[in-house]
Amino acid sequence: MKGFLPKKAILLLAISSLFPFYKAFAQEASDSLYIRAQLRQVEQMLYAEPDAAEQAALHALQYANAQRHPWGQMVANLTLGMVCLTLQKNEEARVYFETALAQARSIHDIKGEINALNNLGNYYFVKEDTDQALAYYEQSLALEEQHPTPNLAASYLNIGLVYRTAGYPEKAKAHYLKSLAVETGYTPQTKLHAAVSLSSLYLDEGVPQMALSYADTALWVARQLHSDEGIGRSHSLKAQGWLAQGLFEAAISGADSALYYLPQGEPRYNAYICKAEALAMQGQLEKAEQLLLQEAPPQDTALSLGLRRDALQQLYQILKKAGDPTGSLRYLELLKVAEDSLNARASKQELTRRLVQFEAERKEKEIQRLEQQALIKDLQIQQRNFLIAAGALIASLLLSGLYLFFRQRRLLAAQENLQIRLRWRRAQLNPHFFFNALMSVKTLILAGDTNKASRSMSQLGRLMRRVLESSNSEMTTLEDELQFLKDYLALQQLSTEFEWQITVTPEDLDVEDIQIPAMLLQPFVENAIEHGLRYLEDGQRMLRIHFEERGSQQLAVSITDNGIGRSGAKAGKHPYPSRATEITQDRQKLMKGKFSYEIIDRSMEDGSTAGTQVAFILNI
């Protein structure tokens, strides 16, 4: 006879002992009133309406997720895990507990971590993986002993139950006693189950006096809780203690009290056995037999035969202990008949299984034969289709080859046409550049400044050489473009007084490898000087050109002047014809996304013109 706690009761114990955790945390989380209310509702509904409790816990988790509340998410996941364990949704419970553990550790919540570890231990205990359960319980207990929580008593009890199941009664007893020794924070359910477990353990060890003492403790707590099942288990343990002491009348009375309170099913089994054995020891064998056999229904089913076999086995043991060899021998014979019936039933089931398996294998072989015939026909059809498909493929390849050949020719012709158009636009730009440069030299000659005119002719010669060298290529390196701009600006300074500055960011930019469209910037630099700076009457004329790398694929270029601006140039006294913008727009269309640019009119705080900026984005 055993009085230890079944797994269902262990699960309920673990869950009921953990709810004070939420009350403690709710006080610390002033912004979690709604979550606290939901979790209290779950606590109230868990045993009576577990399905409704699950919905309430899910609602709490959804609310915590919507509010991005880490503490609320953690406790909602813990609650859902407990509810799922109650509903025997074990794998879902494990996921919720593991999520809660990760969340507790991420927010450094020791109490939450303890609770999650303890519940993972409960999960593995239910799965009968005692080693893994003990690993989690011990992690939880180590933290809990450093940071005591209301769950400390339950943690000691859980580890004791696992040690008991694993076959370590002394370790189990030590943890049961530690559970009872916790003076504050424990729940009455924890104390009840600790006392029941100790009483059962002492019965197994043959120490009935200690078993009765702890059974009395369990009975007192169960009455405080108004727990019928707890009262019934306590009476059953007391009955077994009295039986071990030879107090048969007290044992029968205690068993009757237990049967009055205990629900139908497994919890009543120990009380029946205890009462039957006490009756047998008093010589009331017929009553003992009737008591045990009434639980075994006469139907010829595996369940009823198994119950009958168990009852006969108990009667055999009782009569053998009572010193009735004739009676024990009779029940031993009946036990053998019951076991033979079970074996015969199992043999019949095995024969039926083999017949079904044989028929299935025969049909499988027939299916395989038909499949082979179908496969042969399929192969013949596939061979014929292959020849047809091969011919069609060869024909399609020939047609595709011809199509690709003529398409490639069209693409090459289109590419060549594009290059011709780009060169044509470049060819339009070069005379425009040379004409404006010669006009600057002419201005110096007419002014009689032969020295500047001479230097400008030398610089113009270098610029013309650079332009002619790059005339066959649409692209140039950033290094060459920088040098070209510097030479051009030096040339323009001979005829127009202004300052200029060219900067590159970062300073170590690899200008030798970066390719940009040739002479793309010069027309806008020229416009800035001719249309903006030349007619600025007051202040220092300044032109800034800045290059900046953006990522590894783009280069930003800005050309900024403090001249009279576009509005001033349009309304100015010296109109200056220029086709540079029109040519650049055509180049932009032909180069299809190679670059983009924007012209920005700058202004002062008072609304007056502050010059013009041209911003380029080049794809490099």
UniProtKB/TrEMBL annotation:
Coiled coil: 348-380
MF terms in GO: phosphorelay sensor kinase activity
Stretches assigned to the Signal transduction histidine kinase internal region domain: 422-495
Pfam families, per the entry: His_kinase, TPR_12, TPR_8
Signal peptide location: 1-26
InterPro entries the UniProt entry points to: Bact_2-comp_sensor_kinase, HATPase_C_sf, Sig_transdc_His_kin_internal, TPR-like_helical_dom_sf, TPR_rpt
A GO cellular-component term linked to this record: membrane
Transmembrane portions of the chain: 386-406
Keywords associated with the record: Coiled coil, Membrane, Signal, TPR repeat, Transmembrane, Transmembrane helix
TPR repeat intervals: 114-147
Protein name per Swiss-Prot or TrEMBL: Tetratricopeptide repeat protein
Upper taxonomic lineage: Bacteria, Pseudomonadati, Bacteroidota, Saprospiria, Saprospirales
